[in-house]
């Protein structure tokens, strides 16, 4: 009788431990879109360059959405993105300085083209184009931050990637809900 109680208690304890371990799984174990070999091999300077460009793209596209969108939900999303990415850019600047990496702010050709397309979009098409650009940008940011969180060297930049990864995943969920109401 005592043995069966002990076995039941041990089983219950094991199940609780497993459940707790699943609840506190590291961010890096969350499912992410496939990280490419190129993203996984990023050094700190290239990570900073790409992360800074991502943040700047989000800031500029959110500012554009606040000027052009007529949809209050899209405008609210853009306000959130603007606030979050201005804060993220400040955090990235601090992390880069702490790790002695120069922050270079240079949008990719694709980001520049997307901003131009958003600027030139017909008023009736702007919201859909903006939200579509946000889905794509979120996927890219998730891959970038996830790969650096998993494979980047220890330091302030890795801490930045780990800290901002859940926020970018949340942005993707919000963008999806705006795109598919």
From TrEMBL:
DUF4142 domain mapped to chain residues: 45-176
Stored InterPro entries: DUF4142 (IPR025419), Ferritin-like (IPR012347)
Xref: Gene3D superfamilies: 1.20.1260.10
Keywords of the record: Signal
Signal peptide per UniProt: 1-21
UniProt protein name: DUF4142 domain-containing protein
Species this protein is from: Agrobacterium albertimagni AOL15
């Amino acid at each position: 009788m005592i043995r069966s109680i002990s076995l039941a208690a041990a089983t219950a304890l094991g199940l609780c431990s497993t459940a707790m371990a699943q609840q506190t799984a590291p961010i890096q174990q969350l499912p992410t879109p496939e990280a490419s070999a190129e993203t996984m091999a990023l050094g700190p300077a290239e990570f900073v360059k790409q992360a800074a460009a991502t943040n700047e793209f989000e800031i500029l596209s959110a500012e554009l959405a606040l000027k052009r969108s007529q949809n209050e939900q899209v405008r609210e999303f853009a306000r959130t993105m603007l606030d979050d990415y201005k804060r993220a850019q400040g955090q990235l600047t601090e992390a880069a300085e702490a790790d002695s990496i120069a922050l270079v702010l240079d949008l990719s050709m694709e980001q520049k083209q997307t901003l131009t397309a958003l600027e030139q979009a017909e008023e009736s098409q702007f919201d859909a184009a903006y939200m579509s650009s946000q889905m794509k940008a979120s996927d890219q940011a998730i891959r970038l931050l996830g790969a650096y969180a998993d494979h980047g060297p220890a330091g302030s930049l890795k801490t930045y990637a780990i800290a901002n990864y859940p926020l970018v995943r949340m942005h993707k969920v919000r963008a999806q809900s705006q795109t598919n109401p």
